[in-house]
């Protein structure tokens, strides 16, 4: 084994050791109760809440997927996605965080998203709970798979070992760590990982800009590529069987693809997804003091703004420095790894690339934990075995975690998976299934249980329908599936709620109590 690889391994081992230590530190508290394991006993501080929410949300696509999009086709799609995410982040913290923290505790001390929605509507047959839990299981299997793809690409590139083996090794580590420490370990390590991701992005961005010769040189080098710097369109790599063609050392591009207003709106709609992201919403529910959410909001917004735009411009700089190094959409997602390995000595590069590992761990542990809670707490305890002890629920959480991880690993076996596309589908699924009903549940007293069911089913189903059946038709309907699915879900909630009997007096009084209580704290 070469000296470079030894230094990479040393850096990664130090980082992994720190994460494992956090898991063991919280292992005892996590095993005390399912509440501690799944939501940390609502004990998070403002800094941990903010950083854990953003780190668990962004995942490996921030350091690989988003730079890969910018490298492959320029600023257009990447920038509008980043703007949408930034707006969505801020609005979610501003409007949803405090109300959800209050409502989830008042609504029978709900500790999962399905729990909250079910308790919000006082349902007895647990239909909402079941639907919510099943959608979480489905989409988090896909989400966790995207994380496993990320770690597989990272390790296979660094150590020149077959992708599948590296992907499975990474998955095994994440499962073992989450299995031991639960929510508190996940949140504490996410705080650390958010810092690592932020530093990694900043270091690579600054080093890349210096290496190119400044911002003016970056612009000068890419402006000749049709549409690469266009905010209202994207560059169009000339490909044969998915591989970009090269002539005289220069990658070839066809004419730029222009964006219409509808495409821009649909790309901005990435921000709508935040209102339905369980891994973010759960952090809102877990903060110890709701009044500290304002501090968390500011931290999260600054972190998100800097990180997103650093990721985009790393991709642009990468195209300048290594124009013909990555010739497929899938391989372009390795640009951060390529730049890190080229700029720094192996030991430092290993620490920088630990940012990718940080992003992957911080997201996949959240996904696995929430998926596990969806089955163990909501389906197993809520429906199948209502008299299950807290210890039995805890055991079932860990069993479910392993099963979800196995399914995700199977999905991740394809090395040519494009992380950005895998994440975008799962993001749309959560955004359209849970986003509209979460907003209506928190802010509209007239929403009914039937409206909630209609909205969730419409949103979740439409993501699949639009992605698989409608979008391939092309033309005006070739837009991101989250936008139409979100809109149709909202329409379903409003229509069905107005056509069905108004919520009971008990539900309406609790809604008013929460609204008034929020202004007192």
Task: Walk me through what this model shows.
It contains 19 helices and 6 strands. With 521 residues, the chain is mostly helical. It has a single domain, classed as Up-down Bundle (Sodium/glucose cotransporter). A two-stranded antiparallel ribbon has the order 1-6. A hairpin with a 2-residue loop joins strand 2 and strand 3. Helix 17 packs antiparallel against helix 18. It starts with a helix and ends with a helix. The mean pLDDT is 85.
What is the average of the pLDDT values? 85
Give the C-alpha Rg. 22 Å
At CATH level 2, the architecture is: Up-down Bundle
Q: Tell me the count of domains.
A: 1
Number of helices: 19
Question: What share of the residues lie within helices?
Answer: over 70%
Q: CATH superfamily membership, which one?
A: Sodium/glucose cotransporter
CA-based shape: globular
Briefly note the structural class of the backbone.
Answer: mainly alpha
User: Which regions have little confidence, pLDDT < 50, spanning 5+ residues?
Assistant: none
Offer a few descriptive terms.
mainly alpha; Sodium/glucose cotransporter; about 525 residues; two-stranded antiparallel sheet; 6 strands
Sequence-ordered SSE layout with sheet pairings:
Blueprint: H1 3-30, H2 34-39, H3 46-58, H4 65-73, H5 75-106, H6 113-120, H7 127-159, H8 163-212, H9 215-222, E1 233-237, E2 239-240, E3 243-244, E4 246-247, E5 250-251, E6 253-258, H10 261-268, H11 278-286, H12 293-321, H13 335-343, H14 346-384, H15 390-411, H16 419-443, H17 449-470, H18 482-499, H19 505-520
Helix pairs in contact: 1-8, 1-14, 3-8, 3-11, 3-12, 3-14, 4-5, 4-12, 5-11, 5-12, 5-19, 6-7, 7-8, 7-14, 7-15, 7-16, 7-17, 8-12, 8-14, 8-15, 13-14, 14-15, 16-17, 16-18, 17-18
């Amino acid at each position: 084994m070469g000296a470079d690889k030894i230094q990479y391994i040393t850096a990664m081992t130090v980082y992994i050791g720190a994460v494992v230590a956090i898991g063991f530190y919280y292992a005892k508290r996590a095993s005390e109760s399912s509440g501690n394991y799944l939501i940390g006993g609502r004990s998070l501080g403002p800094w941990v809440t903010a950083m854990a929410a953003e780190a668990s949300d962004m995942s490996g696509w921030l350091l690989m997927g988003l730079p890969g999009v910018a490298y492959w086709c320029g600023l257009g799609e990447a920038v509008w996605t980043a703007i949408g995410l930034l707006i969505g982040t801020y609005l979610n913290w501003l409007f949803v965080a405090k109300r959800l923290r209050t409502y989830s505790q008042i609504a029978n001390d709900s500790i999962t998203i399905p729990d909250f929605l079910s308790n919000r509507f006082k349902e007895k047959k647990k239909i909402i709970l079941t639907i919510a839990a099943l959608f979480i299981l489905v989409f988090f299997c896909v989400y966790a798979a995207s994380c496993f793809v990320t770690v597989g690409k990272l390790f296979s590139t660094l150590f020149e070992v077959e992708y599948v083996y590296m992907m499975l090794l990474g998955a095994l580590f994440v499962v073992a760590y989450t299995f031991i420490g639960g929510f508190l370990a996940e949140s504490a390590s996410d705080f650390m990982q958010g810092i690592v991701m932020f530093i990694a992005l900043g270091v690579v961005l600054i080093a890349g800009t210096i290496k190119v010769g400044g911002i003016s040189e970056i612009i000068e080098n890419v402006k000749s590529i049709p549409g690469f710097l266009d905010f209202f369109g994207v560059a169009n790599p000339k490909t044969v069987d998915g591989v970009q063609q090269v002539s005289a050392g220069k990658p070839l591009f066809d004419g730029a693809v222009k964006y219409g207003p509808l495409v821009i709106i649909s790309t901005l709609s990435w921000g709508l997804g935040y209102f339905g992201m369980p891994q973010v919403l759960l952090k809102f529910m877990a903060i110890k003091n709701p009044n500290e959410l304002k501090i968390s909001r500011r931290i999260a917004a600054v972190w998100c703004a800097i990180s997103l735009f650093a990721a985009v411009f790393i991709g642009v700089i990468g195209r300048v420095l290594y124009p013909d190094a990555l010739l497929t959409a899938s391989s372009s997602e390795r640009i951060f790894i390529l730049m890190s390995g080229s700029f720094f000595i192996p030991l430092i590069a290993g620490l920088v690339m630990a940012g990718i590992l940080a992003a992957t761990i911080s997201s996949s542990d959240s996904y696995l934990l929430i998926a596990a809670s969806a089955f163990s707490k909501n389906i197993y305890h809520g429906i199948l075995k209502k008299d299950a002890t807290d210890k039995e629920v805890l055991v079932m959480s860990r069993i479910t975690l392993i099963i979800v991880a196995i399914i995700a690993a199977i999905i991740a076996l394809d090395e040519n998976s494009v992380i950005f596309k895998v994440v975008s589908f799962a993001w749309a699924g959560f955004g359209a299934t849970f986003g509209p009903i979460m907003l209506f549940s928190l802010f509209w007293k007239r929403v009914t249980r039937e409206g909630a069911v209609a909205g969730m089913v419409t949103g979740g189903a439409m993501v699949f329908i639009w992605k698989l059946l409608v979008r391939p038709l092309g033309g005006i309907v070739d837009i991101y599936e989250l936008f139409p699915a979100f809109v149709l879900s909202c329409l379903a909630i409003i229509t069905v709620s107005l056509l069905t009997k108004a919520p009971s007096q008990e539900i309406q009084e609790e809604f008013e109590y929460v609204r008034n209580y929020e202004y007192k704290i």
